Amino acid sequence: MTTTRKAVGIDLGTTFSAIAHIDAYGKPQIIPNSESERITPSVILFDGANAVVGTYAKQNSVAEPEKIVDFVKREMGKSKDEFHREFGDKIFSAEELSALIVKKLKNDAERYLGQEVTDAVITVPAYFNDSERTATIHAGQLAGLNVLSIINEPTAAALAYGLDKLDQNQTVFVFDLGGGTFDVTIMRIENQHIKMLATNGDHRLGGKDWDDIIVNLVAEEFDRLHGENPLLDLQSYQELQSRALAAKIQLSSRPRTTLVHSHNGKSIKIELTRDDFEKISAHLVEKTKTICEIVMQEAHMNWSDIDKILLVGGMTRMPMIRTMIQEISGVPLAEHVSPDEAVAVGAAIQGMLSTLAQEDKTGEKAVPESTREQFSTREGGLIQVTNITSHTLGVVLWNEDSLEEYVYPMIAKMKPVPAEFKNNFGTAQANMAKVVVRVVEGESTVPTECTALGLCAVDLPPYLPKGAPVELTYCYNTNQTLEVVVDAFGKQSRVTIERHTGLSEDEMASATASLSLIKVE
What we know:
This protein is of the alpha+beta class. Helix content is 30%, strand content 32%.
């Protein structure tokens, strides 16, 4: 293996994941896994001291459901108290489980490319918050990767779509509906610059919700006929989930399908038409429609301002989704974009841009000039990608008039990143020994209605009067993770937030050692 650093792009998905790279000719390519598949199911099977990731794990979910982990992306950012899975004598966090999926992708890529994969850009839903983004970075690091950056999935898809269209100024509406998350983002391609204008979404809405509708339909009918709930048995539940997924896929290309399910020696047969499926899942489609309308309002745009709609994620193959987006927009769909692969491809492009930017900084050139030219503007600079904040970042303050806490917005939603904002505040009372900065994320002014990201505390000099000035700076980097700087009387403290979620630094070190003992296949 060569020692040259190799960067890849990883789409770490809820139901499927993919990995891509830039080849020797400067072209983005999907890297097939060891099973010769272009996408890998995000399913883990624990087999003794080994972890099997992918199709084999998914196929065995019915036979050995107690050994299976899936849909872990929906749990990212949670502490071990909020979410964990136990196998053998080890308790796994969401980051550790996701790291096993990333490790599978990394191992397969190294086998295919014949060289070590060292660096990665990993994608996240645009609407992921700070703790979810931090957890994703942790997952990459636990898998042995240097995470160059985190990139929003719609931004990655727009990069994949727009790399050869940078001379065509246009506004693109990215509709990204995957297995477990949903994002809509408006992107502007102009003067060879890709800029994010607005975003919204729901990271707990995706294909699984459509599957669950079919699962519940069959379970309710089974209970009505036989007086038993097949969902109370784990094996029966996994089997029904598999049948529901197959039925959903069939209904995207056929007008009807038949579901047969057996449990405890009893069986049921249900015919489901596409029309009926669309009726019982209409509320989910309505959710996606509402979010589309919200993001258009936030961007102060009309559908006539949109040039193309880019459909990303396997769920956009459903006729009900395509019909809805066409009816509300009347905008043509972008052609020749793979819903399953665009995000990983865009991440690989961002990986190359990050590599080239690093080369410019250090002066050490390893990427061929012919490749550099393909990622450069007419003026010779690198293609620029600008993201925006997907949530407002605030600080909790005390209101003396109302005698209650409130949230003061430090960085508003839809601000370009990286972003840095500062403001001066006064101490709440005299002789305070320290100032505690409580950082929250969300659009409300009520602290309990926002997500608590964590806190940082800074010691103060003695005998300060009430209202003594403290300057607060929020630094939001390109990964959309936050650092806080507190400046009190000449003493400046750059404080990493003590996050309430995910793994701590000590836990990261322990997890790295523990995961190195697990063989990932």
